[in-house]
Specification:
The complex is a heterodimer of chains A (410) and B (363). Chain A is α+β, with helices and mostly antiparallel strands and 410 residues long. In chain A, strand 3 and strand 4 form a beta hairpin. In chain A, 52% of the residues are buried. Chain B folds into three domains: 109 residues, Acyl-CoA dehydrogenase/oxidase, N-terminal domain (Butyryl-Coa Dehydrogenase, subunit A, domain 1), CATH 1.10.540.10; 104 residues, Butyryl-CoA Dehydrogenase, subunit A, domain 2 (Beta Barrel); 127 residues, Butyryl-CoA Dehydrogenase, subunit A, domain 3 (Up-down Bundle). In chain B, the strands form three sheets. Chain B has a four-stranded antiparallel sheet, with no helix packed on it. The longest helix of chain B has 33 residues. The chains are: A alpha+beta (410), B alpha+beta (363). The complex binds flavin-adenine dinucleotide. Flavin-adenine dinucleotide binds next to strand 2, strand 4 and helix 12 of chain A.
């Protein structure tokens, strides 16, 4: 039965998240934007404690403990959390300890033992981070087919060599805490995609080093790094999936791609949070100046600003519902690849459009660094780039609706 | 709990409507539009599906409860077949649903059974007005209290089957509020004018209707002496036309997908070109997103919430979606899309009508 009733337990979570977003994030959002690479320890420590108490984690280290009775809401709850915390500040949100994209990959591709072993680092005394490294200097969108980082078996170890770039929270995972990074490497370069596997590399592993901290347009509170792997040895059991490569069979690889079915809607949720921040802020400024938006009028009676606001609200709400549907499907164990990519496509578009219009509509105020609007404009754009650019997610949707393979449409 | 899945009953309803839309509406659509006439028996067959009857309680001659969500799902499936005939089949709902929502007990008992228990008859509504800045919140057709009657004056546009209507629900401004009045046809002061000539939905016969000092007894005001709340009625109209818009858009997408895989340029199907493939992906994404927005408004309406804003936003989104999707459908077919042998140009003409045609459907 079609229903839009928010479950009570999610509502409780949102109340808490709103408090955190308003009190722990907004007040320091500007500071950490202007102090790139400074680490927001207050926020991190607070979140670590808060999540320990709540028994939840930020992005994906869920279900580590026993399953509870009742409907599965994990991904839906996370979407709400991420939307609200990104409304608070998306750069700071990406500094949330206790499970990021690395944990999501472990969740999607790891065995029960691996989940237990790798994700348990997040439940310790100190806050820890994880990261996921797929992108390499020569290729991003073309991944994972073009992975050049290699993993060669040597007895009961794998030896990794290669370079990864643009790793979100890589510094926090490897340098600032005892976390881990999921490294995508090929165990058979002649096999293309079929040879690519995720490996867990824990902090302190010799041969794995952080070599560069990027300076970015936005989400400056979040570190983005390069990772160099030079004869980096990890235990055999750190490979997730099958150690065998069966040509033309995507076993071992397919499970890994499922990561994106889970992370794309979540990135879309983050985008929606930023867009909502901008839209609410514009509405509030208008309200303070006594400009009231009227709903219900035909377009020819609307002022331009009313039309803008109404269009933005329509875009934003429909996108959020698309996100919600894609995480609901995930919770219901329904295949959601197409919905996940649709949500990502639209959220990327919408957050960029809304923040661009918001800054334009608010004129000098929108452009000024005294207000957060211009920051959200900068923060927004990343959502159309990572976890598959808008183009890559369009390709995925198009292939699905046309029933095409990657070879037929690329 | 969130859920995005129709229940068993809704699935059966959708399937039944889809069958009818595919086998009857779609087959008839082209000629009906060209000839400006619906084939005999088409409407009656659709009426027998019982979509409206199922949303009217037994006490008033029906056999169910109103569910706006189910109504929207049916509208989607019906609109997929053909917009004009979908509106014709659903026409009595524009009369019955407002009575169900805003009528007094006496009005419901008196007015609904003749509509619901009989075969399809043109029970209609006069909603739209012939002015570029028509706004349902400020009807230019006016009702004025005059002793123990109301006097109705004004002009309505796009009144379906006005020439044959059994009875008409007329919307008019009264003391700054939009109210509805049940008006019998063939009475003094009511003139049915020329048949409308529109860009689209040509198969649906629609007329101008004029009211000159038409006298209406007090008990014919919807809701009786105190009147009714117009907002939920308007919202029903908005989500209904929005649901139809999803159907029209989905029809266009479903038509161009196989076409794009077949049509080749330089030895490659156009669907393998990204500029086409991306358009298709965007069309599909837009439909999916806006559809959920409409569902949410419908669900809120069922839950008894005030959806003045949500239903308006849903229709705003649906209007843009329909225009974008139907326009791109023509684009995918290229010059062939411009030729009336293919249905995409009809959908494009119908798609433009979505924001204008509010009031012609109700769920
Ligand atoms: C701040 C930040 C954080 C990031 N975090 C991570 C992370 O944690 N882990 C990680 O692995 N990566 C991360 N990335 C990398 C990100 O996922 C890639 O940048 C992205 O996938 C695009 O790859 P690219 O930069 O190599 O661009 P390219 O692949 O070179 O693409 C360039 C342009 O070509 C388009 N394009 C590419 N292929 C096609 C095609 N087939 N059809 C049509 N258009 C195409 C793209 O859409 C884009 O517009 C991060 C990036 C940034 C900037």
């Amino acid at each position: 039965m079609i229903s839009f009733e928010m479950p009570e337990s999610i509502r409780k979570t949102t109340v808490l998240m709103e408090t955190i977003a308003e009190n722990m994030m907004r007040p320091v959002a500007r500071y950490f934007d202007e102090h790139e690479h400074e680490i927001p320890w207050d926020y991190i420590n607070f979140m670590h404690e808060a999540m320990k108490q709540m028994g939840v984690s930020s992005i994906a280290a869920k279900n580590v403990k026993k399953k509870k009775e009742g409907p599965r809401l994990g991904n839906q709850r996370q979407a709400f959390m991420l939307e609200i915390l990104s409304w608070g500040d998306s750069g700071l949100f990406l500094c949330t300890p206790g499970g990021g994209l690395g944990a999501a990959a472990v969740q999607a591709a790891g065995s029960p033992e691996q989940k237990e072993r790798f994700l348990s680092c997040h439940t310790g005394e100190k806050p820890t981070f994880d990261a996921m490294a797929l992108t390499e200097p020569h290729a991003g969108s073309a991944m994972p087919a073009e992975v050049r980082t290699t993993a060669v078996r040597d007895g009961d170890q794998w030896v990794l060599n290669g370079e990864k770039i643009f790793v979100t929270a890589g510094h926090k995972a490897l340098v600032d805490s005892d976390g881990f990074v999921v490294i995508w490497a090929t165990i058979d370069p002649s096999a293309g995609r079929a040879g690519v596997r995720p490996f867990v590399v824990e902090a302190g592993t010799p041969g794995c080093s952080v070599t560069k901290l990027e300076h970015k347009l936005g989400i400056r509170a979040s570190d983005t790094v390069s990772i160099l792997l030079q004869d980096c040895r990890v235990p055999f059991e750190n490979l997730m999936g099958s150690p065998e490569v069966v040509k033309d069979k995507k076993k071992g690889f397919k499970g890994a791609m499922a990561t994106f079915d889970a992370t794309r809607p979540l990135v879309a949720a983050m985008a929606v949070g930023v867009a909502r921040a901008a839209l609410e802020s514009v509405k509030q400024m208008l309200e303070e100046r006594g400009v009231e938006v009227q709903y219900g009028l035909p377009r020819n009676r609307l002022t331009n600003i009313e039309r803008e606001i109404i269009d933005m609200e329509t875009m934003l709400r429909s996108t959020w519902l698309l996100v919600l549907k894609s995480v609901w499907m995930l919770d219901e164990r329904k295949p959601n690849t197409i919905e996940a990519s649709m949500a990502k496509v639209r959220a990327g578009d919408v957050v960029v459009k809304i923040t661009q219009r918001a800054t334009e509509l608010m004129g000098p105020v929108g452009y000024s660094r005294e207000h957060l609007l211009e920051k959200w404009f900068r923060d927004a754009k990343i959502n159309d780039l990572y976890e598959g650019t808008g183009q890559i997610n369009r390709l995925i949707v198009a292939r699905r609706i046309l029933d095409y393979t990657r070879h037929e449409l690329s | 709990m969130y859920s995005f899945e129709p229940d068993e009953e809704q699935r059966m309803l959708i399937e039944a409507v889809e069958r009818y839309a595919t086998n009857d509406l779609r087959v008839a659509a082209h000629d009906a539009d060209e000839e400006g006439e619906l084939p005999a028996g088409l409407i009656e067959k659709g009426w027998e599906l019982g979509v409206l009857q199922a949303s009217i309680p037994e006490a008033y001659g029906g056999f169910g409860e109103r569910s706006v969500v189910s109504g929207v799902l049916a509208a989607e499936a019906m609109g997929w077949g053909d917009l004009a005939s979908a509106m014709a089949v659903m026409l009595p709902a524009t009369y019955a649903i407002p009575i169900l929502v805003g009528g007094t007990e006496e009005q419901k008992t008196r007015l609904l059974p003749p509509v619901i228990e009989a075969e399809w008859k043109p029970y209609v509504a006069a909603f739209i007005e012939p002015s570029f800045d028509f706004y349902p919140g400020e009807m230019q057709t006016k009702a004025k209290k005059n002793g123990d009657i109301y006097l109705l004056n004004g002009e309505k546009a796009c009144v379906p089957f006005a020439d044959k209507a059994e009875s008409m629900l007329v919307y008019a401004g009264l003391d700054g509020q939009t109210q509805a009045f049940v008006v019998p046809t063939g009475v003094e002061g009511l003139t049915v004018g020329e048949r409308e000539k529109l860009m689209g939905i040509g198969a649906l016969p629609m007329y101008r209707v004029k009211f000159e000092d038409l006298e209406i007894p007090i008990e014919s005001r919807l809701g009786g002496e105190d009147g009714c709340d117009f907002n939920p009625i308007l919202a029903s109209a908005q989500v209904a036309i929005a649901g139809l818009a999803v159907g029209v858009s989905k029809a266009a997408l479903d038509y161009v997908l196989p076409y794009a895989k077949e049509r080749e340029v330089w030895g490659v199907p156009i669907a393998q070109k990204q500029s086409i493939a991306f358009m298709l992906a965007e069309m599909a994404t837009e439909i999916e997103a806006i559809r959920l927005l409409i569902w949410e408004a419908a669900w809120m309406l069922d839950a008894g919430k005030d959806v003045t804003k949500e239903a308006y936003l849903a229709l705003t989104g649906a209007s843009d979606m329909a225009m974008m999707v139907t326009d791109q459908a023509v684009q995918v077919l290229g010059g062939h899309g411009y030729i009336r042998e293919h249905p995409v140009e009809l959908w494009m003409r119908n798609g433009r009508g979505i924001p204008t045609l509010t009031g012609l459907a109700m769920v």
